[in-house]
Amino acid sequence: MSGAQYTLTGRLAVALPPVEAFTLFTPRGEEQWVAGWRPRFPVKTNDDSAPGTVFETGAHSERTIWVVVEREPGRRVSYARVTPGSRAGTVTVEVDVDGQGGSTIRVTYALTALTPEGQGPLHEFAERYPNFLQSWEEEIARHLGSRPPSAAAQS
Length: 155
Description:
The chain is α+β, with helices and mostly antiparallel strands. The protein is built from four helices and six strands. A six-stranded antiparallel sheet has the order 1-6-5-4-3-2. It is globular.
């Protein structure tokens, strides 16, 4: 089997300063703007982005196990993620000031297919990645009650 592996990086804009924008990319923070995102924590935690925190999600009828592996509060968070029988890898979110009072978010997914059946969904995800991040920007802007920063710049 020749496996599938992708490292995908993209950027989006968020109309919040970095410390506030960072909270939107924590497990509980994503609940505010991601439809169907409902992290389940097997152990009670007061700090959902502390390294070592484990949670599960069930979006798109797939169980995914997540572990916070690294965090620099307000600046960066990395997760290991495994969708059993399909894909595994890491997701890293880096937050930086954009010079206009908002933030630029850099999101990197490094994923490997675990089985031949996992290759198709992974390939589709890779092809849709720019649109995926665009939808994040739009959903966050909707949550904040504003237009996406990139759309505002185009008008």
